[in-house]
Amino acid sequence: MHRSSERQRLARQMHDGPAQSLTNLILQAEILRTALRQGSARARAELTVLKDAVHQTFQKVRGFIFELAAMMLDDLGLNPTIKRYIQDF
Predict the structure, then answer these.
(1) Measuring CA to CA, which residue among 52, 23, 49, 22 is closest to residue 35?
(2) CA–CA separation, 33 vs 42, rounded Å?
(3) d(C-alpha 28, C-alpha 20), whole Å
(4) Residue 85 — very low, low, confident or very high, per pLDDT cuts 50/70/90?
(5) pLDDT surpasses 60 at 36
(6) Which of 21, 46, 20 is nearest to 32 (CA)?
């Protein structure tokens, strides 16, 4: 697959995946705020939903990081990629 088309695909996936998931997390936090005012049982349930959504979003982001790392390895090669990771670390 051509590099620019791969980048476009990844950008679409980022928009459709983690970006929308983060928007959803904001909405769920607002629901939780309302639930806290209404009672602790509902708030606990909403907190569980929010925690699960955060976990799912985190997993999606980790997947994208893995894909980006693979693209960098393809673009730069092994030695420059390792050097960049060491510098970032």
Answers:
(1) 49
(2) 11
(3) 12
(4) confident
(5) yes
(6) 46
